[in-house]
Amino acid sequence: RSVRAPPSKSEIITGEASNNITDYIYEKIGVNLHHQPNHPIGIIKQAIYDYFEASSPGTFSKLDDLYPVVTTTANFDEMLVPPDHVSRSPNDTYYVSSDKVLRCHTSAHQAETLRKGLNAFLVTGDVYRRDSIDATHYPVFHQMEGVRVFSETEWSASGLDATEFAARDLKATLEGLAKHLFGNVECRWLDTYFPFTEPSYELEIFFNGKWLEVLGCGVMQQTILDKNYKPGHRAWAFGLGLERLAMVLFDVPDIRLFWSGDERFLSQFKAGDLKARFKPYSKFPPCYKDMAFWTSPEFSENNLCELVRGIGGDLVEEVVLIDSFTSPKNNKTSNCYRITYRSMNRSLTDEEINALQDKVRADTAEKLKVQLR
Ligand code: PHE
């Protein structure tokens, strides 16, 4: 099948004042790990498709090639994200221009897909978030959104009210999915908040001795459905992170492995095989670099991580705040960050790491306007 061509660089790095997209991020667009059948992300996607096909044959439309650049209207407004919600901040979201973003969740496609008239669908795609750097966070990851709309005949036959009917169906569907992926695991439901669902829940499973959050979901806010579909219906929605599921299921210790293209990683997985467990190959030694500075009111950790990623790329394994104190003399705060550099496939030389770290220090002082110590 044909897959949409990735956007051109000038379409993404627009030069507008609000644009905060780096070359590093641009290069991830169009990679589409979820289109690779033998990649863990593609395997999980297919396993979820298989579950929905088996439990409700022919019901769910599958969309996995929707364009990742969306309007702020689609990403936030139509999903009822409040005007002051943190996710709208350029500290958290990649802005192409003041009214376009790299989608930060697949929920950005809920409203438009409802407007197409679809009443049950799964939308899979790459999503983008500015965040900290560690083994489980990467600025690009993959989500799958699921939506199912019910008509009055469906809930009235059950004797339940519409919300209760949708919530029960949602929970049964997702517990079934968790068991399909993870075997006969124990599930529990926690109440939570999303702007676009009410009530909202988080599903946790007990796996390898721990409770793990696997997805967010809820009964769709009625105004979203009334506006974009038609009145007199009720719906549920969920959103899940494919990397998170794949890391848990396949024992993948570092999210960068998905992007490494390393045969020693890829050769361990095969379409349809949910039983594979990642066998680590020898790791190369890490190199730690500490950097301390007097912080400023504008300083943000996400900006630092973005800067470090822009210089060190996937050689950066982790950025952590290891010390912070406020001087009683001048009331200034000093932060010390430890950057871990490690390649997944070779030894790094002192020279190259020193060169990267020198650039990190220089750019941190200049662009983040903090004073190095
Ligand atoms: N969009 C939410 C997220 O990214 C997940 C979600 C989707 C929650 C749909 C509820 C309903 O965290």
What does this structure look like?
By secondary structure, this protein is α+β, with helices and mostly antiparallel strands. Helices cover 30% and strands 28% of the residues. The chain has twelve helices and 14 strands. The strands form three sheets. It has a seven-stranded mixed beta sheet. Strands 12-13-11-14 form a four-stranded antiparallel beta sheet. It has a three-stranded antiparallel beta sheet with strand order 2-4-3. A hairpin with a 2-residue loop joins strand 8 and strand 9. The longest helix is centred in the middle third of the chain and has 21 residues. The chain is globular, with a radius of gyration of 22 Å. The model has no long low-confidence stretch (mean pLDDT 96). Bound molecules: phenylalanine. The site of phenylalanine has 12 residues, from strand 9 and strand 10.
Order of helices and strands: HHHEEHEEHEEHHEEEHEHHEHEEHE
Number of helices: 12
Rg on CA atoms, Å:
22 Å
Termini separation (Å)? 55 Å
* Largest beta sheet: strand ordering: 1-5-6-10-9-8-7
Enumerate the spans where pLDDT stays under 50 for 5 or more consecutive residues.
Answer: none
What's the count of strands?
14
Q: What structural category arises from helix and sheet content?
A: alpha+beta
Indicate the mean pLDDT: 96
Small molecules in complex: phenylalanine
Report on the biggest sheet.
Answer: 7 strands, mixed
The level of helicity is 25-40%
Strand content: 25-35%
Shape: globular
Keywords: Aminoacyl-tRNA synthetase, ATP-binding, Ligase, Mitochondrion, Nucleotide-binding, Protein biosynthesis, Transit peptide
Catalytic activity: tRNA(Phe) + L-phenylalanine + ATP = L-phenylalanyl-tRNA(Phe) + AMP + diphosphate + H(+)
Pfam families: FDX-ACB (PF03147), tRNA-synt_2d (PF01409)
Enzyme class: ligase
